[in-house]
Write a structure and sequence with these properties.
Bound molecules: iron/sulfur cluster
CATH architecture of one domain: 3-Layer(aba) Sandwich
Number of strands: 11
Strand content: 15-25%
Helix content: 25-40%
Strand order of the largest sheet: 4-3-5-6-11-10
Structural class: alpha/beta
CATH topology of one domain: Rossmann fold
Distance between the termini: 23 Å
Mean pLDDT: 92
C-alpha cells in the first residue's frame, strides 16, 4: 500500500468538501475494506459513507432459510452451503441449529465441489443452497449445466440469486436525491461490465464509479466522486477498475447465466418484492430446481421486530442508529441478517468498531 499516495488523496478529498456528501457502496468487500482502513475517521465528517445491499446473505429472504430447513427435515437430504448462511435465522431457526440436532448440513467453499459430492454420494439427495449476485450466478449456472451433462440425478439447487441493477434503481428512486454518489461493485462489474451501471448517471444524474478492492482503488473512487459532486458534474461515470472490468463484461459468464436462468421478480429480505431482480432456474433445467422438485410451504414471513436492516440496506440509517445494536444484537446472537454475515454492515461495525 502506498501510504503517501493514500494520504495525499485523502487530504485532497477533505479539502474539496464544503457540505455534506453521501456516497454509497453496494459490495460487502468494499464495506469491509472501508472499515479496515478506518476511512470514516480519516475523511472529513462531512463525507458519509453508506453501505447498501451488497451483502448477499443480508438480503436473502427468511422464507428461503425456512425452505432449506423444511427440505432438510421432510426429505432426509444432505444440504450443502457456504458458511455464511449457517447462522442466518428464518422463522424455523437456522441451519446451524439443525446441524446441532444431527441433520446432514455441510459447508463447502466452491459450488463446483457439489458435483464431486453428488457423484460420490449417489444414494443421497444433495441440495445446494446458492445465494449471491451476478458474481455467483455463472458458477452456479456452470454447476447446473455440468450436472445435466454428466447425467447427475441426485443434485438440486435452492437458489436465491439477485441482480444488482434493479435494487439500485429502487434505492435511487427511494433516496430522493439524498445519495450523491455510488461506488459500484467491482466484482459484479467484472461479470456484467462497467456499462451495466451507466444508468446511475444517465437516468438518475448521480455520479458513479466502478472500483476495485485495494485501499487505493476505493480512495481513488471516493476522490473521483467527491470531485464530480463538488463540481456539479451529475452525469459523471468512470470505470476505475479497468484492469479487471471491460465495458461489456465477461461474455462467457453472461452466456452461462442466460443459458440456465430466467429473470423474475425477487424478494429482498426486509425490503420486499423488487421487479425483475432475481434469477430463477429455467424450465429446461427444472429437474435440478429444488423449489420445483420438493413441495414447500409458500408462506410469507414477518421481518423480525426491532431490526433496522431495511433502513441500513437503503442507506437511511447506520448500524448504531438501530436500538438493538450491541444491545441484544451482536455476532454471537444476531437479530438480523446485517449482523450475521461477515460482510454485513452491522457485523463489520461491531468487529471494527467503526460506524458503517
Ligand atoms: Fe438488525 Fe442487529 Fe443490525 Fe439492528 S444491529 S439492524 S437488529 S442486524
Amino acid at each position: 500500500m502506498d501510504k503517501d499516495l493514500l494520504t495525499n488523496l485523502i487530504n485532497e478529498v477533505n479539502s474539496m468538501v464544503t457540505e455534506e456528501i453521501k456516497i454509497m457502496e453496494v459490495c460487502g468487500t468494499h464495506t469491509q475494506m472501508i472499515a479496515k482502513l478506518g476511512l470514516r475517521t480519516l475523511l472529513s465528517s462531512k463525507i458519509k459513507l453508506l453501505s447498501g445491499p451488497g451483502c448477499p446473505v443480508c438480503v436473502t429472504e427468511e422464507r428461503y432459510i425456512d425452505w432449506a430447513i423444511e427440505i432438510l427435515n421432510r426429505y432426509n437430504v444432505t444440504v450443502v452451503t457456504f458458511g455464511d448462511l449457517m447462522k442466518v435465522r428464518g422463522r424455523k431457526g437456522s441451519l446451524l441449529e439443525e446441524k446441532g440436532k444431527g441433520k446432514d448440513v455441510r459447508i463447502i467453499y466452491s459450488p463446483l465441489d457439489i458435483i464431486d459430492i453428488a457423484e460420490k454420494y449417489r444414494g443421497k439427495q444433495i441440495v445446494f443452497l446458492g445465494v449471491g449476485f451476478e458474481t455467483t450466478a455463472p458458477i452456479i449456472a456452470l454447476a447446473t449445466k455440468t450436472a445435466a451433462e454428466r447425467g447427475i440425478d441426485n443434485l438440486y439447487f435452492l437458489t436465491s440469486l439477485k441482480l444488482m441493477a434493479p435494487i439500485l434503481h429502487y434505492i435511487l428512486k427511494e433516496s430522493n436525491n439524498q445519495i450523491h454518489g455510488f461506488i459500484c461493485p467491482g466484482h459484479v462489474a467484472t461479470i456484467k461490465g462497467s456499462d451495466y451501471f451507466k444508468f446511475i448517471n444517465r437516468k438518475y444524474h448521480v455520479p458513479a464509479a466502478v472500483c476495485g478492492f485495494e485501499a487505493v482503488d476505493i480512495v481513488a473512487g471516493i476522490y473521483y466522486l467527491v470531485k464530480q459532486i463538488t463540481q456539479g458534474k451529475e452525469d459523471a461515470f468512470q470505470n476505475l477498475y479497468k484492469r479487471c472490468v471491460s465495458p461489456q463484461g465477461n461474455t462467457t459468464a453472461n452466456l452461462l447465466i442466460d443459458e440456465v436462468f430466467n429473470i423474475l421478480d425477487g424478494e429482498w429480505r426486509g425490503i420486499g418484492n423488487i421487479e425483475n431482480s432475481s434469477l430463477q432456474i429455467k424450465e429446461k433445467y427444472a429437474r435440478f430446481d429444488a423449489r420445483k422438485v420438493f413441495v414447500l410451504e409458500n408462506q410469507q414471513v414477518k421481518v423480525s421486530m426491532g431490526c433496522d436492516c431495511k433502513d441500513i440496506l437503503l442507506g437511511k440509517k447506520t448500524p448504531r442508529e438501530c436500538k438493538l445494536f450491541k444491545k441484544g444484537c451482536n455476532p454471537m446472537s444476531p437479530q438480523g441478517p446485517c449482523m450475521v454475515s461477515t460482510e454485513g454492515a452491522c457485523s463489520i461495525d461491531y468487529r471494527y468498531g467503526e460506524e458503517v
